What we know:
The chain has helices spanning about 10-25, 30-50, 70-95, 95-120, 125-150, 155-180, 185-205; strands spanning about 1-5, 55-60. By secondary structure, the protein is mainly α. It folds into two domains: about 1-50; about 70-195, Single alpha-helices involved in coiled-coils or other helix-helix interfaces (Up-down Bundle).
Amino acid sequence: MRQIKKRSPIPLYGTAAVWLAYCLIFPLYKVTHFFFLILAGVAAYIILSKLFPGKVVTVEEPDMPESTGNLQIDALLEEGHLAVSEMERLRGSIENPQIKEKISVLIDITGKIFDDLRTDSDDMPQVKRFSGYFLPATMKLLNAYDRMSSQGIDGENISGTLRRIEDILDTTIEAYKKQLDSLFANQALDIETDIDVLEAMLKREGLSGKDF
């Protein structure tokens, strides 16, 4: 577990408001005028930072993955560890409960994908593609959502972008599920072969169906 401080956007908005009010009330044609403008902004930021210090969120920090002895696999497992850690942080930072739930699903599937890599090295090419494309794109969207949702306003650009990210997360979850399922294709084929061999042995020994 580790704690992360999330700054409040209010000091920035307050500073901007002070600057705007200053520009509307006082003249700005001398160097000293700009000096007092900057001074007023700094004072406003310091005061508002004291009044609105932000919040501290606690996130779980996954244990570092153990080495497998394969440098390429270890590197991928480390990427997976960092991605899960960042998603944990974002889940603790984002306030929307529905998005929190979707992030939890992504964390669970991502963990299972990299767990599969640890037990089946043949899946490394697929996991490498997943880690090189899906994960960075997902992290970029989640970080954008966290940044925009923390602004505290409902502007057209912010609200529209947040809705699009919320919608695409459902598609992303389905893509993650398909990615995980595809990793078991070779194992499913091996099991089917084992079943065929077992059925043939049982039939030969007269231990299956009507023969039994």
